Amino acid sequence: MRNKRRLTWVGITLVALFFSGCTVPRLVQRTENKSVPASFYDSQDSTNSAKTIWRSYFTDPNLSSLIDTALYNNQDLNITLQDIQVANNEVLARAGAYRPFVSLGGGAGVDKVSRYTSQGAADDYTEIRPGVRTPTVLPNLYFGPTVSWEVDIWRKLRNSKKAAVYTYLASVEGKNFQVTNLVAEVANNYYELMAYDNQLDIIKNNLIILNNALSITRQEKEAAKVTELAVRRFEAEVFKTQSLQFEYQQRIVETENRINYLVGRFPQHVQRNSQSFVDLTPIKPNAGIPSQLLANRPDIKQAELSLEAAKLDVVVARANFYPSLTVSAFLGVMSYNPLYLLNAPQSLVASLVGGLAGPLINKNAITATYKSANSKQIQAVYSYEKTVLNAYIEVANQLSNIDNLEKKYNTKNNQVQALTQSTSISLKLFTSARADYMEVLLTQRDVLEARIELIETRMQQMNAQVNTYRALGGGWK
Q1: Hey, which of 158, 343, 448, 468 has its CA 20 to 30 A from 199?
Q2: What is the largest CA-CA distance in the chain?
Q3: Alpha helices, DSSP H only, in 320-473?
Q4: Rounded Cα–Cα distance for residues 152 and 165 (Å)
Q5: In CATH, what is the architecture of 33-98+157-320+368-471?
Q6: How far apart are CA 144 and CA 330, in angstroms?
């Protein structure tokens, strides 16, 4: 009776210790905030330009051709496509983890058992067949399939596979976001290249005017109407404008090569019609309502899917505290002589083993894994909220930028017209000795800068149009 009681208490103690090993540390998790403002600058229009495909949004055939080539040849995008394939392979790997593993194999070995053991003593009196006893040195050969299976009683393996699926989907959205940025980057560089062409033309035309003014100044000097100082100042202005010309020529080369890099080709001429740049009319994209960003922006969807994967990683890490059930089985043939392997059923051998095991003492590793998974889940929450906040601010900034750039362009255009008129006036006054040569120089310098800034403003307007489209989540469809 005492022995039975002791065994009972030992059993109860072991069961208590076993289930105490299943306890999980309590951790505080944070829920993401998915609320966004109701509108952009009190606009209730739900029409959204992000739903427009990029072929319809960018109507320039040269630009469309560049974007097409970039989407096919861009190395960074192709690397991302391989990352997606890697994520897909991870899904397949985790899907196979909760299915039975079957392997086929065999082996051979030699045993020499001591005669002073129970097995040796039994073999000494056992006849393999009449008159033939078991040999002292006994070969052993076997062949057959082995099955092993971890029974997913806590859905740890299924949740792990589901987390891999979310990670795969997040990588797809990451690719979409990369496509959005690639389309925008090609368009921005294309408009920048056209702007540099126009600015270079302005510089060349200004050089013609300055050289004419220099020629007139030399004539005036020969007539003793001006000094050598005026001639030298005009020459210096010509040299300054020529150096500016070389600067813009280098900008054109670098911008062309940047576009060539994006489209995945070696340096070559980029086809464009720069003469039409000044006639481009920037359009204000329809921003819709902020809640549409959650569906249109790939980076928001990527952050949301990554958050779901992080949540499941916490569930998987939590399941490590619970016992796991494994089952293994073997069915095959075994014999000490290869000639007897096919002598069924005497050579048949089978085994079936099930095991239930869980962590009991020293759970530091799985505890650390669980806490790390929880911290990463909280990080994913903040990352999601940060992405949503950044998306809203990007759209709001670009909408304001479009309005202010339109006003800036109109004002700058008025300045250019006024300075253009003053250029011819100052040159006439200088010829008639009614104005100083410095007035001509300063006027020429001002009109050059104003015209360059006007083209720069037009480029900024086109870039704002592209960046608003990107910020809204357009370009990847």
Answers
A1: 468
A2: 141
A3: 364-431, 437-471
A4: 18
A5: Up-down Bundle (1.20)
A6: 7
In order of 211, 224, 230, 233, 237, the CA distances from 227 in angstroms are 17, 7, 6, 10, 16
First to last CA, the chain: 78
Query: Tokens 């006439």 appear where?
Result: 428
Residue 314: name the closest of 363, 360, 376 by CA.
376
Predicted local confidence at residue 16, as pLDDT = 44
Helices 75-97 & 61-73 angle (0-180, nearest 10): 40
100-151+324-357 belongs to CATH 3.50.30.10: no
Give average pLDDT by consecutive 10-residue segment, the chain, 477 residues: 48 45 65 76 82 94 96 95 95 90 90 81 73 77 90 91 95 96 97 97 88 77 74 84 95 97 96 92 90 93 96 93 92 85 85 88 88 94 94 94 95 88 63 58 79 95 96 93
Task: State the span(s) of the chain assigned CATH 1.20.1600.10.
Answer: 33-98+157-320+368-471
The one-letter code for the residue type at 28 is V
Exposure of 14 by Cβ count < 10 A (0-12 exposed, 13-18 middle, 19+ buried)?
A: exposed
Kindly write down the DSSP assignment for every residue of 389-417, as one continuous string: HHHHHHHHHHHHHHHHHHHHHHHHHHHHH
- What is the number of other CB atoms lying within 10 angstroms of the CB of residue 162? 19
Residue 189 · residue 251 · CB < 8 Å: no
* Cα–Cα distance for residue pair 468/461, rounded to 1 Å: 11
Please name the residue that has the structure tokens 């007139």: 216
Residue 279 in tokens: 């006639």
What is the structure's pLDDT at 15? 46
Residue 35 falls in which region: left (phi positive, over 0), alpha (psi -120 to 50) or beta: beta
Instruction: With residue 103 as reference, give the H or E element that holds it.
Output: strand 101-112
